[in-house]
Specification:
456 residues, alpha/beta, Rossmann fold, six-stranded mixed beta sheet, binds adenosine-5'-triphosphate, binds 6-O-phosphono-beta-D-fructofuranose
Length: 456
């Protein structure tokens, strides 16, 4: 049976129009929405007008005065940039079946917003405005230091110049900025985030897709935090090469469980060693046994973190599956993301059941998740933007703690390996044998910026 995403069912196309002064987190929010929707197989793309502007006007002569509303030359370039972005976005909607396009610019005047509104309506695209309003001066300054002083607009410029120039740029924008409000904009679909979700104003949110975006954005926060991921320790089934089941840890798996608190401490570092973590496990014994020596009070079990259900193949080895169900074995290798075990699940099914986990993860701070190979691949794919066709083939070895440190536009990944051997449960395409081939590429390693720390 074909699997349809909600966009196919509703047949809607949405243009999210970002609104707000510079350094209000618009690009960050836009990129997160794209990552989240793409993970859910909803075709989305961000059109950043700043990039178009740099392309047509260069960066050499760009300083705050370029953004002066009385600078005719600057206005000409800026108008050209937004026009190009809109044009590309409309082409993408019609030629590439785009579903959610995000127009990432300040869009800070009603005149500009009305123009976009008109274009969207002419093209039967639902416009949804998303404003980030912020008057917390300390936060704005922090944002400038965090991301703007290193922006392509300030290559080779010193931090003090970049900071004061960017503040001047904001002043110019303030001269014409018109924030959204429920009186003047009562006819529009919009969400207005005030001071990082201290207050959220919603107006005319109508379609299911819009409400999904709204719900996601409402759950975001910007406090610094880390997420740790680990598979359970080696299990009895891992030793025999069987998949699924609810077996206990092997002796070596138990040693990993005892070692895990030390790995976590090492990854926290001396100054953060008292950080309190919340532990999430699945409902299966092997993840709970792995968590049992961790000295943290808050431990939660989630059914949604249980391993991929292999249905009729539960308890079999890959060799047995290849022998007994050769067609299924091949079909899975051909399209591992979509293949659903008879009476069981596919990777796509896991992503769907993980959505509430992702939503809760966005709300939370420091969390350590102990789960299973397939589930961990899907979680990792969300944070690292790994494409669907790659994610089921990622190598995530046993007895390794992964730390994810979300930053403004990237995530830093580090891995600490326990000095406790474990079998490999990695099966390459085209074979039923376990273990990573010497020629096979380790996708998770080749894609990301991973810092591998010492073996502990
Ligand atoms: P510009 O208009 O110059 O492109 P921008 O509004 O797109 O600016 P970003 O580049 O996304 O701003 O700024 C990222 C910074 O904003 C990060 O430091 C992030 O922590 C912070 N941030 C994220 N969300 C918010 C928010 N809702 N309000 C204020 N700051 C936020
Ligand atoms: O072998 C360990 C395991 O967690 C199995 O229980 C599960 O079916 C499998 O990994 C998922 O990995 P793959 O999708 O590569 O078969």
């Amino acid at each position: 049976m074909p699997v349809y995403s909600i966009s196919h069912v509703e047949n809607v196309r949405v243009c999210v129009v970002m609104v707000g002064l510079p350094a209000r987190g618009k690009s960050l929010i836009a990129q997160k929405i794209v990552r989240y929707l793409s993970w859910l197989s909803i075709k989305s793309k961000c059109f950043n007008v700043g990039n178009y502007r740099r392309e047509i006007a260069g960066v050499e002569d760009i300083n705050a005065e370029f953004f002066d509303p009385n600078n005719k030359e600057g206005l000409k370039f800026r108008r050209e940039a937004i026009n190009l972005a809109i044009q590309d976005m409309m082409n993408w909607f019609s030629n590439e079946n785009g579903v959610v396009g995000i127009l990432d610019a300040t869009n800070s005047t009603r005149e500009r917003r009305d123009r976009i509104l008109k274009l969207c309506r002419e093209n039967l695209i639902e416009p949804m405005f998303l404003e980030s309003y912020c008057d917390d001066q300390d936060l704005i300054l922090q944002n400038i230091l965090d991301v703007k002083t290193t922006s392509p607009d300030y290559v080779d410029k010193d931090i003090d110049f970049a900071t004061s120039d960017f503040l001047k740029r904001i002043n110019y924008y303030e001269q014409t900025y018109e924030t959204m409000d429920q009186k003047t904009d009562s006819e529009l679909t919009f969400i207005k985030l005030v001071n990082v979700n201290t207050q959220i104003i919603l107006n005319r949110i109508e379609s299911y897709l819009e409400s999904r975006i709204v719900y996601y954005v409402m759950n975001l926060h910007i406090k610094p935090r880390c997420i740790w991921l680990s598979r359970h320790g080696e299990s009895a089934y891992n030793l025999t090469g069987q998949i699924g089941g609810d077996s206990d840890l092997s002796d070596r798996g138990m040693r990993y469980a005892k070692k895990l608190p030390e790995l976590v401490l090492k990854s926290l570092g001396e100054e953060n060693k008292h950080t309190n973590l919340t532990i999430w496990t699945s409902t299966l014994k092997r993840t709970q046994q792995t968590a049992s020596f961790l000295p943290y009070k808050k431990k939660l079990q989630w059914k949604a973190l249980d391993e991929l259900d292999a249905g009729e193949c539960d308890g079999m080895t890959y060799e047995e599956i290849e022998k007994e169900f050769p067609e299924d074995f091949k079909a899975r290798d051909d399209d591992k993301y979509e293949y659903r075990y008879k009476g069981g699940e596919s990777y796509r099914d896991i992503v769907i059941r993980l959505e509430p986990i992702i939503m809760e993860l966005e709300r939370q701070e420091n969390i350590l998740i102990i789960t299973h190979q397939a589930v961990l691949r899907c979680l990792y794919a969300y944070f690292m933007n790994v494409p669907q066709e790659e994610s089921p083939w990622m190598s995530i070895p046993l007895h390794t703690l992964i730390k994810l440190e979300p930053r403004a536009y990237s995530t830093i990944v580090s891995r600490i390996k326990a000095d406790i051997p474990a079998v490999s449960t990695y099966k390459e395409k085209g074979t039923s044998q376990l273990g990573e081939s010497i020629t096979g590429k380790n996708i998770s390693k080749s894609r990301d910026l991973i810092k591998d720390s010492d073996v502990v």
